[in-house]
Structure formats: C-alpha cells, structure tokens
UniProtKB/TrEMBL annotation:
One of its GO terms (molecular function) is glutamine synthetase activity. Gene3D superfamilies: 1.20.120.1560, Glutamine synthetase/guanido kinase, catalytic domain. Residues 85-179 form the GS beta-grasp domain. GO terms for biological process: glutamine biosynthetic process. Belongs to the glutamine synthetase family. This is Glutamine synthetase type III. Residues 184-619 form the GS catalytic domain. It comes from the Bacteria. It holds the Pfam family Gln-synt_C-ter.
Length: 729
C-alpha cells in the first residue's frame, strides 16, 4: 500500500501544466455560443413566437402548444447544427447533483429509418424514471412517476459529451405525478415570484414605475484542487469527499501567504480552461484567485437573476469536475476536506433589483431613495432575525457540519454585520424622539435621513467573520456550504423576505388608513423593527469564543447539529410561512425534511465505514508491521547487551501499541453504535444517533491515527499526507 502512495506521488510530481488556448481570438465569438439565448431566439423564431416566449419568461406565464412546437423546432435545428445528437431535461433533484436522461433526437420509424424528432411536447414535459430520485414519501416508488417541465427562464444549452457529440440540455423543474415539488428549482421559483410581488408592492410607495423586482445572486465558489493520482490514493477522498485522517502540515495557512501568492501553473491552466468552457455557456465568470488555505481557490461570476445564477453555479461545478480530468486534477467542493485549515463556502451575494434599474440595497445620495434603502435594509434585518433558525436549517448538511459549529470556527450562529456607520445611522434613527413635521419642513432632514448616504459611502468596512454581512450594496450570506445547491438557502431567504415585506405593507397601510404621514409612518415602523431585531447585529470577531458566549446571552441560537437544524423546517411557524408564501405545502416540507435527514444519515454512515476500514486495514496493519520492525531492532540491541539503547525503542513500542489498541477499541465501539442506529426505524432518531454517538468516535479515532502518522516511518505510511496533497504545482 505504501508503494501506492509513493507511486502516486511520483506521478503527481512528474506532471506539467497543460497549455490552454482560447476557443477563438475574440471573446464575443464564443461567449454564450453554447446557449439558446435571447439573440438566437430572436434570429430563429417568428416575431410572434419570440414575443410570446419573452413575455412568458418575463411574467412566468403559460406557453401555448404551437409556440412550444416552434421553439422546439428552432432549438433542435440550432442544436443539431452545432453537433448535438441528444437532448435531455436537465434538473436538480434533491440528491444534490444535477440529473439528466438523454434521449436521442433520432427516432427509428416502423420502416427502420432514422428521423429527427423533437416536438413541443418533448420540450415542455418529459417523464424520467423518477424512482431513482428521493421523494421523501411523496411518491410511491413503484409508481415511478415524476415529470420534468421546461423552465423557459433559464436558457437551454449544449453540453459536450466528451466522446465528440453534444447534448441539448433543457433546464427543468421536477415534480411528482400529483404535482408536488421533487427538486430544488420548483420552490425556488415560487419564492422568487413571492418576493417579486411583495417587494414590488413596497416599491410602489416610493416609485410608481416599479412593476417588477428581481432578486440577484452572485455565488462566490470556493474549492480545493488536488492531483488526481493523489486523490485516488486517498480512499476517504474518493468515498466521502473529505479526508477522515491526516495530520496538519507544518506549514498550513498560518503564514497567510497563499491568498496573495501566485496561482500554481497547473491550477491556473485548469482555471483558464474551465473559464473558457463556462463562457461558451454564457456564464459571466469574472474573478479567480487563491483562497486562504493552501490548495484552495475561488471562482466568482458576475451576479445574475437568482434562478439563472443557481443553474449556472450547478453547471459550473459540473464543468469544473469534467475539465479537471483533462488536467489530471480533482476538484473538491466538500465543505471541509481537510481538518485544521479553512473549509469551503459558497458565499451567496444577494440583493433585489427593480425593473427601473435600481438596486434596492444600494444606498443613495437622494433622501427619498435613502428612505427606500432603509426600508429594505431594515426589513432584511427583521426577516433574518425572525427566521434565523430557518436560514440555519437551509444550510444544514453533513459536510457543512464540519465547517460550522465543529471544533473549528466559524460557529453556527446566524448574525448580521452592517458596518459601523450604518449601525450608527440606525441607532440614531431609533433614538430619535417624536419628530414633528410642520408645513414647509423638509421631512427627510428632520428625520436625519438626508445624512445617511454620505456617512455610508466608501465606508463599508469588511468583516470576514460574519455569516451574513452587508457589503455596501448587497448582503453576503457566507455560511452556505461549498458543495451545496444554493436553492435551499435562496428559497428560504427570498421567502422570509417576501413574508416580511408583506407584513411591512400591512403595518404601513394600517397607519396610512389612520391618516399618518407616509414618511413618518415608515420611519416609525422601521424603528420598531430595528428595536425588535437588533440583538442579531454583531460587528466583532464572529470566530471568537467571546461571541459564542455573548450570543448565548442575547438568546441567539447556535444549532450545531444538522438533524437539529433540519428539525426547524417542521416547526409550525416554518410550515405556516412556507404555506403563506405559496412556496411549499406542508407535505412538501415534510418530504424535504425526510430527504435531507436520509442524506445526512447516509453520508455519516459512509464516513463511519471509511474510517473503520482505513483505520483497521491501512493504519493498524501498518502500525503492526512497524511494531514488528521495532521489536526486532530492540531485540537485536538487547542481544548485543545494549539494554539502555533499547529503552527509547521500547517507549515507541509502548506508545504505538497503546494507540493501536485505542483505535481498535474505538472502531469496534463505533461499529456497535452504528448497528444500534441502523436498527432504529425512525429516521430522525437514527440521524440524531449518527450525529452524536456515532460521530463522537470520529475525533477519538482520528486523534490516535494522526499521532501514529507522526511516529510511524514515513516510508511505510500508507496514506498520502496533507503536505503532499495540499501543494499542487
Ligand atoms: P467582494 O469584494 O465583496 O467580494 P465583489 O464586487 O467582488 O465584492 O462581488 C462579489 C460577488 O458579489 C460577485 O459575484 C458579484 O457579482 C456579486 N454582486 C455584486 N453586486 C451584486 C448584487 N447587486 N446582487 C447580487 N450579487 C452581487
Ligand atoms: Mg466574498
């Protein structure tokens, strides 16, 4: 086995960076060339069809069959001309991966001749074999009926099959026979529509021209890159996506030199390559840089409408995995692939934009716009405060559990960072006593709102430790896991915002009906909201122990375990919120909860088995061989009469033996506990046992294994070490 490690190291060492050429000289020639985008539609569709389809996209309306036929036809000709042989509905089932089922464009007729077929019906709806996707009890497996339905708001695209051909991918929703959501996209679209409606209504108080509000998302994706040979020499990475053992390297991230360092050539070539592919698919990838930990990097696109941004992110992750193969690299999206150094997040930069081109979370120099800004800002604070636990639930996963609330920072506390000047502005507003506005007075001046923008400008100080930070003109939710589909979080965030804005409108309308002046009424409401929710604001170091204590004093939740966090979905308040906003029915929430729990159990179960397997078959067996060597040496020394010299060797023998024993005991006990957990019929109980008793053994076993890594002869150690994996050339 140790041979395997050294062979892998030799292979990894010998690899060179590939040279990557752009698809063509000018970006405009290939950017978006693989997407059936607006421009293509305009050129291929009749004016009527084009108009109808763009209207349907804009308003989410229905598409007639004859229009669908025309679009299908145009899509097919376009795709076939570009080398497509197959088409598929591309969707995001709750497994967390993307799914596709390829059908050929060609059908064989009764006479055995191939014809090209792709009609509107096949574009709009498809019936994949749904039995292989989780449904959390919504659909009987034997029925195996789920439908995928075209989402026209996300452009169809071409995917290289690798073997030369291409597949036309049609972004779709995935619903059960009875119409319940089986995917991430369906509730997301509903939440986006809910927040559009609620935010537009609020915008109407400020500007009658606002008829649509679009939530925007720019997901910054963090990831690790390791050499492919080394990846395959680590069974834990292969099976669980993270290393279950491994002693921290002497040089980790303490020098903080990786962040500003140059990108290693092999990784740079990989980045350039996947960026070209992403641009062909119309993804506005923009920044690339090293991240804090060695071997860690980030890619960020320019923000887009949320639904599109999420499709693009899912597609980008897929693409990165494929392109990495060409470079003999493996990309890791797991939230915590390596202990002792930073994990990977997917920072969700989020805002709301109007059809009039206004970013509702951008401060303005005009007093009236300032009031609107404050309205949206304070409503975000209130929504996040009131539903902090639901946001926490939306990011719960087995992987993210190692990143949030585990032994290493950050904690799983949801708090908001606003920056000093903005906090001060809100404090001033809150403490302002009754404002009396006389005829001719400038109400904004009296309210002190005219001063806010000047205070704010260029003054959004950075706090990298806050899970939910205001960054000048958007919020950045940083606690989302690197491997997650952002839909869960975006569904919750937009749903709670929709609900909060609806409440705000009710509060305001009640006051206006009393004859109160609009601006004063708004400020009064905001003051009350701020007072209600300001305990969630935190400006300090979110990674410090003091904050954990302080947050507890403030009564903020710190939900460390995923099963517990997921339990929040089932609370009456959550169920009602999802129902009120039209995002998910009670049964849909229940099924989602079940699926997430099952996923959690399976992941931890796999990790536990990998730990047992590696510990016994790789580590303990190596340790026993090493003990043998040591014993022989000690015996030889004693035979030579050198008993004193044999003493330190005996010490090592004692230590190694003790650790081997501890590992063996730990693995045995863990296996017993797993059996106990597996025997439970209630998934929630099972998940809880996995989260506590089973997982408790992980650290115990790891501790001993990592100590052995430091003692046992490097020549014999079977697992590729951190220092060998983390520094790609
Ligand atoms: P930072 O320095 O805070 O990382 P950037 O300007 O680099 O800021 O932006 C980070 C991410 O935030 C990018 O993906 C960017 O597109 C996104 N972003 C910027 N403005 C918005 C917005 N209004 N809505 C959503 N995302 C945004
Ligand atoms: Mg960021």
């Amino acid at each position: 086995m140790s041979n395997f490690r050294f062979k892998a190291l030799e292979i990894a060492q010998s690899r060179q960076a590939l040279s990557v050429a752009p698809p063509s000289e000018r970006v405009a020639e290939y950017y978006g060339s693989y997407t059936f985008n607006n421009e293509v539609m305009r050129s291929l569709l009749s004016p009527e069809a084009y108009l109808k389809i763009t209207q349907a996209i804009e308003t989410g309306g229905k598409i007639d069959r004859d229009i669908a036929d025309e679009v299908a036809n145009a899509m097919k000709s376009w795709a076939v001309a570009k080398g497509a042989t197959h088409y598929t509905h591309w969707f995001q089932p709750l497994t967390g991966d993307t799914a596709e089922k390829h059908d050929a464009f060609f059908d064989v007729t009764m006479e055995g001749k191939a014809i090209e077929k792709f009609k509107g019906g096949a574009l709009v709806q498809q019936e994949p074999d749904a039995s292989s996707f989780p449904s959390g009890g919504l659909r009987n497996t034997f029925e195996a009926r789920g439908y995928t339905g075209w989402d026209p708001s996300s452009p169809a695209f071409l995917m290289d099959n690798g073997a030369g051909g291409k597949t036309l991918c049609i972004p779709s929703v995935f619903i059960s026979y009875t119409g319940e959501a089986l995917d991430y996209k369906t509730p997301l679209l509903k939440a986006l529509s809910a927040v559009d409606k609620a935010a537009t209504a609020v915008c109407q108080y400020f500007d009658r021209n606002v008829t649509k509000v679009t939530p925007t998302l720019g997901p910054e994706q963090e990831y690790f890159v390791v050499d492919k040979a080394l990846f395959y020499a680590r069974p834990d990475l292969v099976m669980a996506g993270r290393t279950v053992f491994g002693h921290a390297p002497a040089r980790g991230q303490q020098l903080e030199d990786h962040y500003f360092g140059t990108i290693p050539p092999r990784v740079n070539a990989f980045m350039v390559d996947f960026e070209f592919e992403a641009m062909k698919l119309g993804m506005p990838v923009r920044t690339r840089h090293n991240e804090v930990a060695p071997g860690q990097f980030e890619v960020a696109p320019t923000f887009e409408e949320v639904n599109l941004a999420i499709d693009h992110n899912a597609l980008l992750m897929d693409l990165m995995e494929k392109v990495a193969e060409r470079h003999n690299l493996k990309v890791l999206f797991h939230e915590k692939p390596f202990a002792g150094i930073n994990g990977s997040g997917k920072h969700n930069n989020w805002s709301l934009g109007t059809n009039t081109g206004v970013n509702l979370l951008a401060p303005s120099s005009k007093p009236k716009e300032s009031l609107r800004f404050l309205t949206f800002l304070v409503n975000v604070v209130k929504a996040v405060h009131d539903h902090a636990d639901l946001l926490r639930a939306s990011i719960a996963s087995a992987g993210n559990e190692y990143r949030l609330g585990a032994n290493e920072a950050p904690p799983a506390i949801v708090s908001i960072f606003l920056g000093e000047s903005l906090t001060k502005a809100l404090e001033d507003l809150e403490t302002k006593s009754e404002v009396i506005v006389n005829k001719g007075d400038n109400v904004y001046y009296k309210l002190g709102i005219n001063r806010i923008p000047s205070l704010l400008r260029d003054n959004t100080d950075r706090n990298r430790t806050s899970p939910f930070a205001f960054t000048g003109n958007k919020f950045e939710f940083r606690a989302v896991g690197g491997g997650a589909n952002s839909s869960s979080t975006m569904t919750v965030l937009n749903a709670i915002m929709a609900d909060q804005l609806t409440k705000f409108k009710q509060d305001l309308d009640a006051r206006l009906a009393n004859g109160e002046k609009k601006e004063l009424a708004i400020v009064d409401i905001l003051k009350a909201y701020y007072a209600d929710s300001k305990r969630i604001l935190f400006e300090g170091n979110g990674y410090s122990d003091e904050w954990v204590e302080e947050a507890a004093k403030r009564g903020l939740s710190n939900i460390k375990s995923s099963p517990e966090a997921l339990g929040v979905y089932l609370k009456t308040e959550s169920l009602d919120l999802f129902e009120r906003t039209g995002v998910l029915s009670h049964s849909e929430v229940h099924s989602r909860y079940e699926i997430e729990l099952e996923k959690y159990v399976k992941k931890v179960q796999i990790e536990s088995r990998v730990i047992g397997d590696l510990a016994m078959n790789h580590v303990v067996s190596t340790a026993l061989k090493y003990l043998n060597k040591l014993a022989e040496t000690a015996k030889a020394l004693v035979d030579l009469g050198m008993t004193t010299e044999a003493e330190p060797i005996k010490d090592i023998i004692s230590e190694v033996s003790a650790r081997v024993l501890a590992i063996k005991k730990g693995v045995d006990a863990m296996t017993e506990t797993r059996k106990k957990a597996n025997a439970l019929s209630d998934t929630a109980e099972m998940a809880k046992l996995y989260a506590t008793e089973v997982k408790d053994f992980f650290d115990v076993i790891r501790y001993e294994v990592d100590k052995l890594e430091l003692i046992i002869d490097d020549e014999d150690w079977p697992l590729v070490k951190y220092r060998e994996m983390l520094f790609v050339k």
